Amino acid sequence: MRPLLGEEEAAAVAEVVRSGWVAQGPRVAEFEGRFAERVQAADAVAVSSCTTGLHLALHVLGVGPGDEVVVPSFSFIATANAVRYCGATPVFADVDPTTGNVTGATVKAVLTPATKAVIVVHQGGVPADVAEVRASIGDVPVVEDAACAAGSTLHGAPVGAGVHLAAWSFHPRKLITTGEGGMVTTDDPELGARLRRLREHGMSMSAAQRHAAKGPVLEDYLETGFNYRMTDIQAAMGLVQLGRLDGIVERRRELAARYHELLAEVPGVRAVTDPAHGTTNYQSFWVLLGDGMPERNAVLAGLAEAGVSARRGIMAAHLEPAYAGDGAPELPVTEHLTARSLILPVHHDLTEDEQQHVVRSLAVAVRA
Q1: pTM score
Q2: What is the pLDDT along the chain (368 residues), one digit of tens a residue?
Q3: Which of 51, 56, 250, 258 is the most buried (most CB within 10 A)?
């Protein structure tokens, strides 16, 4: 992955630096409004990362000690970590073998009376069928981990449209970046106002509001909050990046289509693709190695020898030492996917010759 950055981002950041207002301020507010419009959300609240966004989302749902939150193990470990930040227990659900996402059936199988919320991840940009999950779990609140999903669609609308709570990432591995940074979107403006307070130590008004006031202002601290703010430097970059999003998605889907065409000549390797209920932005282009092929790490080593920078597939959090003491849940699909998948290079400047080299090198490695 390479972020698509240019002179526009550099100029936007320089303008903020010259203004003297580099902390959270007017650029953050503008970025929030533009992002909410893009994903068809009622409100958007910029934060320091998707992880802090997930933590805030669970916090405002009242998740705490003694509660359980259902999460996929087949996700970056931050998804489960956010549950622990609240003092609650992550309960791991298995995933669909084709999409890598949780389903209504996999979530329902691990619900208990202690379940306080469910986190549904749109893994690698592949949209999860959230409506199907909700139909299976009743009134249990859902938080969407949309870290990778900017530009993906679900049932004809952008992922995030009308969602109660969703968290997004702008890490450089995502389609659009602010260096570090994230966003929480919500369908409830009152909840958005509370999220804004919580990201800024629980203050009754922001620093920008205090500085804009005509006279002295004494703020109140209404509840225990956090320091989860985004800077105007980051938001200035984000505004330019957001304007590039449609073009980035279009390009990545072109690259994915070519990968699918080339991989048709490598029998036994299955590539990620659009689910029936939406379209993926191909934030990651992962492939699954068929039975009888070499172990995933051996294939990665073969690709590295050929000059191809591939990576292991999505991790399984329950297999990491940080969660080893929580018992060993039965997650056969998760364990198969994480052991047999790898991620191929995909970025805006990838050429046809480079894609051919990637696939030829993969073909050699899986035959070794």
Answers
A1: 0.96
A2: 899 999 999 999 999 999 999 999 999 999 999 999 999 999 999 999 999 999 999 999 999 999 999 999 999 999 999 999 999 999 999 999 999 999 999 999 999 999 999 999 999 999 999 999 999 999 999 999 999 999 999 999 999 999 999 999 999 999 999 999 999 999 999 999 999 999 999 999 887 777 777 778 888 999 999 999 999 999 999 999 999 999 999 999 999 999 999 999 999 999 999 999 999 999 999 999 999 999 999 999 999 999 999 999 999 999 999 998 777 789 999 999 999 999 999 999 999 999 999 999 999 999 98
A3: 56
Domain's final residue, options 223, 243, 263: 243
Name the residues annotated as catalytic.
174
How many structural domains is the chain composed of? 2
Residues 9 and 3: their CA atoms lie apart, in Å, by 12
Residue 198 and residue 64 in one domain: yes
104 and 212 belong to one structural domain = yes
Give the SS3 label for residue 43.
strand
For 67-103, b/e burial (b = at least 16 CB within 10 A) is bbbbbbbbbbbbbbbbbebbebbbbbbbbbeebbbbb
Asked if 54 and 145 count as a contact pair (C-beta separation under 8 A), the reply is yes
Determine which helix (DSSP H) or strand (DSSP E) holds 106, and give its type and residue range.
helix 104-108
Whether residues 239 and 256 share a domain: the answer is: no
Indicate which CATH number applies to the domain containing 344.
Answer: 3.90.1150.10
d(CA 243, CA 306): 36
Give the residue from 356, 159, 198 showing the smallest Cα distance to 262: 356
Using CA atoms, how far residue 143 sits from 54, 264, 288, 327, 328, in Å, is 8, 37, 28, 25, 24
Looking only at the bridges linking them, the beta strands covering 278-279 and 153-154 are: antiparallel
Question: Do residue 333 and residue 215 come from a single domain?
Answer: no
Range of the domain at 307: 246-367
Q: Is the dihedral of CA 254, 257, 259, 265 positive or negative?
A: negative
- Of 243, 275, 297, which one is at a domain's C-terminal end? 243
